[in-house]
Amino acid sequence: MIANKISNNINLKSEALDAVVIRFVGDSGDGMQLTGTQFSDTSAMFGNDVSTFPNYPSEIRAPQGSLYGVSGFQVHIGSVEISTPGDDVDLLVAMNPAGLKTNLYSVKPGHTIIIDSDSFTKKNLEKAQYETNPLRDGSLGNYRVIEVSMSSLTKEALKDIENLDNKTIIRSKNMFALGIVYWMYDRSPEHTIDFFNKKFASKPHLIESNTRVLNAGYYYAETLELIPNAYTISPAKMESGTYRIIGGNTATAWGFLAAAEKSGLELFLGSYPITPATDILHELVKHKHFGVKAFQAEDEIAGVTSAIGASFAGDLAITTTSGPGLALKGEALGLAMMVELPLVVVNVQRGGPSTGLPTKTEQSDLMQAMYGRNGESPVIVLAASTPSNCFNYAYQAAKLALEHMTPVILLTDGYIANGSEPWKIKRVAEMPEIKNNKVTKVTGNWHPYDRDEDTLARNWAVPGTFGLEHRIGGLEKDSVTGDVSHVPENHEFMTKIRAEKIKRVQNYIPDLTTEFAEEGDLLVVGWGGTYGSLHSAVKQLNNEGYNKIGYAHFNYINPLPKNTESVLSKFKKIVVCELNNGQFVNILKMNFNICGLLQYNKIQGLPFGNSELITEFKKIVD
Amino acid sequence: METTAVKKYTFKDFASNQEVRWCPGCDDYVILRAMQKALPEMGVKKEDVVFISGIGCSSRFPYYMDTYGMHSIHGRAPAIASGVKLANPDLSVWVITGDGDSMAIGGNHFIHVLRRNINLNIVLFNNEIYGLTKGQFSPTSLVGQKTKSSPYGNTQQPFQPGELAIGAQARFFARIGGNTPKEMTQMFIDAEKFNGTSLIEVLQNCVIFNDGCYTQFTDKNIREDKQLFVEDGKPMVFGKNRDKGLVLNGLKLEVVTIGENGVEQEDILVHNAKEQDPTMHQMLVRLKYPLVTGIIRRFDDITLEEREDALTKQVKSNSKFTQTDDLFFSGEIYQVN
Ligand SMILES: Cc1ncc(C[n+]2csc(CCOP(=O)(O)OP(=O)(O)O)c2C)c(N)n1
Ligand code: SF4
């Protein structure tokens, strides 16, 4: 006999919701990433706006059932605009006690928890360090707990399929959970069944088993009517167009593919694996059909230097890494800056310093990006703000590098790199032009460091070009001939020219704008990957009537947009919010004479939560 | 690439207008001149030649060549050159490096470029000392050697560059005295012709900080007796009278005299540079007497670019994607109206 038990009141009325946050948690082997991805993809195709965030342990194979081996995937779906994966959870699906223990804090009181009751064995409870069984000791009284014997039901559903080993059977119980959730949110399992058909094309028994379990979960929820099919979320109003769900790292990789095609250059990536940047490498190595040269080097230094070599030889060259890798690339970046070659360096920030928190997010490499080199060494610094706009900023980074002949550091972070959301697909024809500074012929008294009058970018004479043979290097250059020069005044002049070149990029980037208010009591300031959290908090406050709170978000950090000071000066108070100890606020202080900059910082390896921001901003204005 | 015939150059075409700034008497001049003489013989266009160097006295070399070049950062030239070559496989790419540059700070890149077998050429100026930083011991300095940073004698074991290189799967390794320009010139030509990474170790005398470090092998009066200049397919004989040679005694090489103890010309080992098994080449590299110079190892193998190129062609022919739009609109996409 299979036990079913639902605590609290059962409300069978269907309820229309704007948005809902669902978190799937279980052991790292439980397939939670797949479950969550399937749910979000299905919802996106249904027409919802979605935002997702995976959260997995940094150990590859943590002991089964342990607290630190819990893997999670959060999905936020809505009929309204969704800008973050959400923080407070409406539905928690916990496949084991460890998952419940580590995630219970996030569930809103009164909301639902679905658990696989089969996994609440004495052994698993011990591993999760529970002294008593939370399902029996009343500690979950504040929640609507739905206990389902998922393991047994899965076995039952599959008992007459041949050729299935026990491991495969147990592994598919995540599909039982998914089936239940599909029923609850009125989603059809069809899309996931299509997925099985494609994924297991050569293994029909797996199509059969997974489909069966998924349907079993769905029908179980339906026929037993023990689970309220309580929530409907209608499609969101989104701009019309063709969409797909895209993750930040993929979007970054694709932005470079588009830039290479648009600029007519070949794409070269020199990289060394590091979490959470590695997926950009994983993505780009696939695209040999576009002629992408993705070179996995022996270390980060070879990653960046091979890219410098490729840039010298005329490719669109990029290198991807995360904080500790950027530290290693510092010297080479100085060289790239000195030889004035185009190069894009992506730093997917993670918790630092040193090895820090490899799988957690942070914004603490900003100063490293700005100054992590010897000497006066300015480069362009950009930061993407959402998973899908990583595409735009990767493209823009490549464009600026090529048009201004300089290294560009593009900052993303673990939160947006691993998160995903709908992306309205861009055709390359719709993207802005990308010029480059290549010279193909000897004209007059040519020198390698001759500059464009407007941008100050030097020309790009690539090996193989007749008559333009020249030598570059890390030693200071004579401003006219480009030969080595140790003349004191020349060094000062060149230092200033290189700084001015970056400063002039201001003329080629958009002005800073504010959202919700152009002037008023409080301006919330953010940069990079915190966009979603900050934007939705300010939006909520405006909806609550706090209409003198504006929001300004920075994607261009070096140089800052030209109008920055005038935008900021229109607010009585400014609070700069960052996932670090206050790095961007110091850049603002260095550049502008604005007093009373407040700070809100979080340094926990976690993104901002909605309620903490709202409380904080109210405190400032009330 | 154009297919027009390569112009007939002279060594002057490869000399840049920069004043050469090595110490008078430094072997670096010999190497520079040998390179300028070798290039016109290689059949490559001047605009296709690229010199990439790290940091050190030797690494100033690219400035003196009227070709494309980059004087980069300490130890990283092999990685930069790899990027150049992968970006444009038509170029003739040369790495100029010192023993400190390639064996110490750049050790990692040095072994990996050899392992990958990218078609580029490395000239290693081995003066067993750090020149540019004024006289510290290097990874090739001898135990006991007194230098600025080892006033009581160096305690660190040296690398034998050839041994390290062959261990890292170098397919082409040659060694040459810094005072034999004719042979050096030919070696550069041979290196360029070789399809794969070629490494030439030049025993380069630093007159200032390690003067005479190789005279026991390279001094004009004795070098024929102390050096064995190997040539592929030829017996390994040496000596002023060409009467000394190498034979294999058990697992060791032994020097014998032809005509003594019944040793005949036919008993002398014949050099086989093409042998893929590195055992004999490692023995030759390690030998102290005679010091083996010449092209010690040269075996043809597929290069990284060739593998990459074949793979790219294969992927291209199997793919439906010709432009990024094809990728962006593939897979799970959906319409919002
Ligand atoms: C990152 C870095 N560390 C140290 C140095 C200082 N440095 C310059 S050249 C050199 C050693 C050069 O020795 P070697 O490669 O043998 O070349 P040589 O000068 O003898 O030709 C050192 C340590 C540097 N330029 N960069
Ligand atoms: S210090 Fe030595 S290696 Fe450097 S230029 Fe002078 S002689 Fe040559």
TrEMBL record, chain A:
Matching InterPro entries: 2-oxoacid/accept_OxRdtase_asu, Pyruvate:ferred/Flavod_OxRd, Pyrv/ketoisovalerate_OxRed_cat, Pyrv_Fd/Flavodoxin_OxRdtase_N, Pyrv_flavodox_OxRed_cen, THDP-binding, Transketo_C/PFOR_II
Keyword Oxidoreductase recorded: yes
Pfam families the record matches: POR, POR_N
Keywords of this entry: Oxidoreductase
Keyword Transmembrane helix attributed: no
UniProt cross-references to SUPFAM superfamilies, sorted A to Z: Pyruvate-ferredoxin oxidoreductase, PFOR, domain III (SSF53323), Thiamin diphosphate-binding fold (THDP-binding) (SSF52518), TK C-terminal domain-like (SSF52922)
Domain Pyruvate/ketoisovalerate oxidoreductase catalytic residue range list: 29-218
Superkingdom, taxonomy of origin: Bacteria
Domain Pyruvate flavodoxin/ferredoxin oxidoreductase pyrimidine binding stretches: 268-478
PANTHER family, alphabetized: 2-OXOGLUTARATE OXIDOREDUCTASE SUBUNIT KORA, PYRUVATE-FLAVODOXIN OXIDOREDUCTASE-RELATED
Name of the protein in its database record: 2-oxoacid:acceptor oxidoreductase subunit alpha
Originating organism: Thalassobellus suaedae
From TrEMBL, chain B:
Keyword Metal-binding among UniProt keywords: no
InterPro entries referenced in this protein's UniProt entry, alphabetically: 2-oxoacid:Fd_oxidoreductase (IPR051457), THDP-binding (IPR029061), TPP_enzyme_TPP-bd (IPR011766)
Highest taxon of source: Bacteria
Residue ranges occupied by any Thiamine pyrophosphate enzyme TPP-binding domain in the UniProt entry: 55-202
Keyword entries, A-Z: Oxidoreductase
Pfam families reported for this sequence: TPP_enzyme_C
Signal peptide: none
Coiled-coil ranges (or none): none
Gene3D superfamilies cross-referenced by the UniProt entry: 3.40.50.970
PANTHER family membership: 2-OXOGLUTARATE OXIDOREDUCTASE SUBUNIT KORB (PTHR48084:SF4), 2-OXOGLUTARATE OXIDOREDUCTASE SUBUNIT KORB-RELATED (PTHR48084)
Protein name: 2-oxoacid:ferredoxin oxidoreductase subunit beta
Species, as recorded: Thalassobellus suaedae
Organism placement in taxonomy: Bacteria, Pseudomonadati, Bacteroidota, Flavobacteriia, Flavobacteriales
